[in-house]
Amino acid sequence: MGEMNQRQIEDWNGPRGARWLAHHAWLDRSFTAFSEAALRAANLRAGEIVLDVGCGPGATTHEIAQRVAPGGRVVGVDVSAPLVQRARELVQGTNVAFELADASLHPFEPGAFDVLFSRFGVMFFDEPERAFAHLRAALRPDGRVAFVCWRTAMENDWFRVPFRALQDVLPHLAPADPSAPGPFAFGDRHRVERTLRAGGFANIAMTPFDAPLYVAADADESLDQTLRVGPFAGMLAEQSEDMRQRGLSSIRASLAARATGRGVTLSGAAWIVTADV
Ligand SMILES: C[S@@+](CC[C@H](N)C(=O)[O-])C[C@H]1O[C@@H](n2cnc3c(N)ncnc32)[C@H](O)[C@@H]1O
């Protein structure tokens, strides 16, 4: 392996970061139910000091800043320069700061935080156990963790529906290794529990949380949106033009089958995870 987390750092400063930046308003709207659930689990109080890991453009950092005022503050940490720049533009306040850094290596002040929070930002570490042990040291002895992460790829219709449609045309297409860093790396609850336990955490609790994700108004727009934000454009890019067109038609048909008078909606399946130091 090269330098720690290098592939993810390059991706989030490259194509994936650019896609997230271009569509974060849509992503923020789609993810609101998930952050609300994680914030409820975090049970933040005025005066607390919070670390928002993998904060991206800062929507949750902003929410946290409101909830810990007066007297509290929040630090958003992220490896992506363009996303941290956008967060700094969008979220300003005397109780908010952003760090452009790898959360698994950054020398945080020991015991500086009450709470470690994350919305979909802790599944990208090459060595999650080491990363959580490192993050734990940044928490107070009575500190706690609350984050939301995706369950498995096949439980998440926003991935499964277009992926299966693509597999109808490209039967050899395999989903990514579920244990590799990526959105579904924490899908397996036993892996999350092992990771947190190895990182030194106790009282680990995981609750399934499902919510609909609005894709777009009709099948054509939904196909465009699916290609813009998901991994599917990358999968199709490797195919011949004929297969690419067949893949697009198949994904479009799968989305059309989900269309209702209120547009296309696919479900998301997440874990709400809490633990204590
Ligand atoms: C799926 S996005 C979620 C962003 C944001 N939390 C949200 O919900 O909009 C994952 C974020 O984790 C960040 N990330 C990945 N690896 C990281 C690391 N080692 N340290 C800090 N941030 C990381 C990425 O740059 C990206 O912004």
Structure write-up:
By secondary structure, the protein is an alpha/beta fold. It has a domain at 6-153 and 177-211 and 268-276: 3-Layer(aba) Sandwich (Rossmann fold). Helix content is 44%, strand content 24%. It is built from 10 helices and 8 strands. Strands 1, 2, 3, 4, 5, 6, 7 and 8 form an 8-stranded mixed β-sheet that branches. Helix 6 (157-169) crosses helix 10 (241-256) and helix 8 crosses helix 10. The two termini are 30 Å apart. The model has no long low-confidence stretch (mean pLDDT 95). S-adenosylmethionine binds next to helix 1, helix 2, helix 3 and strand 2.
Taken from the alpha-carbon principal axes, the silhouette is globular
- The CATH class of the domain at 6-153 and 177-211 and 268-276: Alpha Beta
CATH architecture of the domain at 6-153 and 177-211 and 268-276, please?
3-Layer(aba) Sandwich
**Beta strand count:** 8
What multimeric state do the chains show?
single chain
Look at the structure and give the mean pLDDT: 95
* Gyration radius, rounded: 19 Å
If you consult CATH, what is the topology of the domain at 6-153 and 177-211 and 268-276?
Answer: Rossmann fold
Portion of residues in beta strands equals: 15-25%
Structural class based on helices, strands and sheet pairing: alpha/beta
**Which distinct ligands sit in these coordinates?**
S-adenosylmethionine
CATH homology group of the domain at 6-153 and 177-211 and 268-276: Vaccinia Virus protein VP39
Topology as a string of helices (H) and strands (E): HHEHEHEEHEHHEHHHEE
Q: Please give the share of residues in helix.
A: 40-55%
Q: Note poorly predicted spans.
A: none
Counting H and I runs of at least 4 residues, what is the number of helices? 10
Distance between the termini: 30 Å
Taking the sheet with the most strands, its summary is: 8 strands, mixed
GO molecular function: methyltransferase activity
Organism: Pendulispora rubella
Protein name: Methyltransferase domain-containing protein
Keywords: Methyltransferase, Transferase
